[in-house]
Amino acid sequence: MGSIAATWLHAPQVRRFRSDDVDETVAFLSTGFGSHHRVPLRRGPLGYQLLAAASSRAVAGWTSIGTENLVRASVPTPTVHLPLQHEIEYRVGRRVLRSAPGRAVVLAPGHDYSARVPPGNFIAMTVEQVLLEEELQ
Q1: Which of 27, 76, 85, 96 could be joined to 34 by an S-S link, Cβ 3.0–4.6 Å?
Q2: Rounded mean pLDDT of 65-90?
Q3: Shortest CA distance to 114 belongs to which of 86, 134, 92?
């Protein structure tokens, strides 16, 4: 699977991460959540934080960012992003997806996306594709 959920196969776990270093944050996110590149658009501390709970088939978490970032990434499993303060526009190829408080986006595995992410708090959830397919049948 290649995702952070794959490392937590037996018992639910909680993981915390915090960094003001862009390279450290990108390395952490790329290891567990797919290819990830991030460029801060303002000077100052990055202020990235993550608190995630994982089971064998899903990860749910809260993230916070202290400065505006341009993000280019892909996800290894279906992923839901929900910003808690601002609208965010995601570009996936030629498609544009808009999230906002109360309106999530679903990102599919195997597709690169880019987004200009303002400072704020976000909720994210990943679920193994097999689990979603079982529910839809």
Answers
A1: 76
A2: 95
A3: 92
